[in-house]
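Handout, page 2. Input:
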Amino acid sequence: MAVDKCKVFCGTANAPLTDAICRYLGVPLGQAEHGQFSDGETRYQIKENVRGADVFVVQPCCNPVDHHLMQLLLMIDAFKRASAWRITPVIPYYPYARQDRKDRPRVAISAKLVADLLETSGASRVLSLDLHAPQIQGYFNIPVDHLYASPVMVEYFQKKKLGQITVVSPDAGGVERARLFAKRIDAPLAIVDKRRIDINVSEVMHLIGDVSGRPALVIDDIIDTAGTLVKTAEALLENGATKVFAASTHAVLSGPAVERLMKSQIEEVVVTDSVPLNEAARGLPKIKVLSVAPLLARGIQSIHEETSISELFM
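Output:
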């Protein structure tokens, strides 16, 4: 890569992921200083020349979401004012993606608001990973490269050789994601009909498909409180599944999530390092972390070299 023109910087959300990306690309991590004023306001200063550079800013907006989002916006603004040629925020975990439409009266469409903020701050394009709602790409008036962690997950489960497995979507909204995964491993698909009672509270209604006498693999994009995942696993076992595995890109794991997973009958929960694991989840044998650093690094390289990024979807 043209190291003198390609520069990678990171926020404070997931420094180990950015370090891994830089090692894969063979570029040094950009020099900058993060800090806060005494009243809590975030400040940011670039410590090297970026004039005319192709800048990539890696920042998943995980907990605390608002702080990391504000930090990302300030970083983009700083690079714009420092005359960077192009600024690409690399957002492995896109914030406020679950509020992508008006699903009830008088609510904000926050996923669109975040897109507007990123554009206004000076982003030239966006690189993201497993958006909760793919249509979020349409909220932008700048290019969006949307990568999927499924190639990383598929490779892992193919090596496990689980035999005749059924891929399961935990709700209707995730059917496309699960269908693509099932196609890649040549497995049948099942769907859980879920009713959401309240925010972070759901109830499993029906299972569409057959899991009897087979292992089941639940595919989702986010594990938040793990309530949906655990109830889905219970429903699958009640319908004859021999074992239940789970795979999810973003291990948010808030509230009682870790406790629920450890008490559940799920054999293994496979996640990525798109966001860092919280303290309670680190080192647990049931939770397996796969790295998406090579995938994101290849995306950055393709953008920088102006080559096709579509081969990363395979």
